[in-house]
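User: Modeling request: complex.
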Amino acid sequence: MQLTLDGDVVRAGNRARERFYDSRGYGHARDGDLDLAPVEAAHLCYRGDIDAVDGMGVQELLASGAVSAVDFLVYKDLRDRGFYLTPAREGWVDEPAGVDFVVYPRGKGPWDDAVAHRVRVVGERDDVPASSLGDCVLAVVDEESELTYLDTSRRTVEGTSAADVPAVEGTLLAERVLCWDPPAALYQQAFYGQQLDEDAVQLSLVEAAYLAREGVLSVDGDDAAVVERGRDVEGDRFDRRLAVYAALRDSGVVPKTGFKFGADFRTYADVESVDDLGHSELLVRVLPADHDFEPRDLALDVRLAHGVRKTMVFALVDETVEWVETRRLTP
Amino acid sequence: MQLTLDGDVVRAGNRARERFYDSRGYGHARDGDLDLAPVEAAHLCYRGDIDAVDGMGVQELLASGAVSAVDFLVYKDLRDRGFYLTPAREGWVDEPAGVDFVVYPRGKGPWDDAVAHRVRVVGERDDVPASSLGDCVLAVVDEESELTYLDTSRRTVEGTSAADVPAVEGTLLAERVLCWDPPAALYQQAFYGQQLDEDAVQLSLVEAAYLAREGVLSVDGDDAAVVERGRDVEGDRFDRRLAVYAALRDSGVVPKTGFKFGADFRTYADVESVDDLGHSELLVRVLPADHDFEPRDLALDVRLAHGVRKTMVFALVDETVEWVETRRLTP
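Assistant: Request completed. Predicted assembly structure:
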């Protein structure tokens, strides 16, 4: 079978519709006929189901640029995994914006209502705007053409940590605040800071700024002095981190430094006492809402979080904080 | 006991020398007397061994800036771990440049010859020049005053992988080269590329550029066309990555993409056949020799590598390639 390319659609007739759409979920049914996206036609060529499109086999379709290699690799991989999928075109699927393929649950197809994954194809070197994440799976094609699927979703963050802390005094030292003889609840119940020893607790600048703003910590110059110091050493990033820190504390979640994991914070949802501390659940990286990811950085964060049995969450800061959970997916 | 600060040295007499140097390794013996660095005097104050320096206790020494909080935290931590250590000053230790403390093996002290660690103190927000790594341990103090020790050393990279590959033809497609019906040795023995299926191998641009330069791969425009494409999509980074790729292959080591680990390459030292592939040993991140690390990025890379049982190596590229291995250390 030979087909022809009409703009960005490969037109096929009734027989092709029966063979490829009705029984195997390729393309988009148009009246009695069939429209195929070039990537679908290339896959049918690759499988030997059709001979050529405008005289081109799969090698020529890829070489000519009529079909993108990364789209083809992802399409093929999902087909190899037993999925039917439809290119996300206006009129072909609901809400095509922001994704390349709509993937159906195994055993289902374009004639059903269910959707398993909304997939966006990304090359290893493509920038990924943080604002575009959520409700989509990134299919990242690396330089050696291996695929990594990253599932992204918007979420909230909530916990039950809520210890009261009596007033405490501190001294601002370079990049930390030292509290000598603080009330036990500061560290023991509320899990602020880190003990230098039994008689002294060190607070990070972000912890100190939050506690000073809440009226709990007295420090020379009040919260303004701590925030100023934070901005001196971190710039705008300090304000973003403080916004996320406050959002987490205000939601009953205890943020602690995520430094050892290369993140901004690790979080504990249900702290009653540091003597009975569970496993921290989330790793949080704070970013401006207009951040562009390099896929490699995403892969690094998600892989590390998985390895330490935590969930990676990106906190995107603008006027508000939006939370995007990202995890590796094996479709 | 009250001591006085003379410039950046705390002067103490013969009795202090006996108590603090001879028996516990503090300070530097000067004739019959003792010189202490302020951080050592602060630690003696903290322990209650001396009362004050110029009327200042440990709180005042830290608050006045006479002693840096991060230096104090690292000094205290190493003492808590049972080490004797000496501030790295000219005349106090050999080769003081580039480090803050010279740490002796447990049970040894400044009167012995052995050195366990040469330690540089780094705050979480300090830049760390890549060129300054090697032969030192970074003691990174994070914002919550927790410590992470990272041991850095210069090394070489060597292996026994050395398969011959017959000539092969390929087509340059956007960011990859596709070889249809290549010789089996290309993938099977030499482990170049990734199989699309049994009849086709996809090469990354860096693999293709190397193979074209070696005269193995024929491609339209030769290696120049592949390198040009690489520079189009990655800029200078492509040249650095190609230099490292070539250095690894020329040393008998097979580099494959490290994308899933957020690195440039993972490496296999002894490949005979992909059917009998061992565990990859190294994760390699390619950087310009004048790169400045953020300690958090170092922590992320080293943590991830450890979690997947690989060794993190930074390849610093200038005229040559220098290799810096970095691993977490528990002193």
